[in-house]
Structure of IS630 family transposase:
Amino acid sequence: MVKAYSEDLRKKVISYITSGGRKREAAKVFNVGEATIYRWICLHKQGDIKPKKRTSYPRKVDEQKLRDYVAQNPDHTLKQIAEALGLRFQNVSKWLKRLNITRKKDDALQRT
């Protein structure tokens, strides 16, 4: 898992720039992307350069639980399935595709 840059490094980069260093030079010296430095400068202007806490979403889905839920509730939307299982609806879509579960199709509506 990717970790955030430390607060010490952020402070060093900000002090380097405020003492007259250029942003591009700071990126090379500290081996950090320029876009990252620009973000840190914006955070510094707002008053806080601490790394933000990440929200965690479950990465693994209980496949059987998902299959059972879809079997019992075939007309639910991705959003409803996600709320019931505690996931994001994008993850539900991805997992349904992996499990080869397609959307409901009604034979009565198909023309022959």
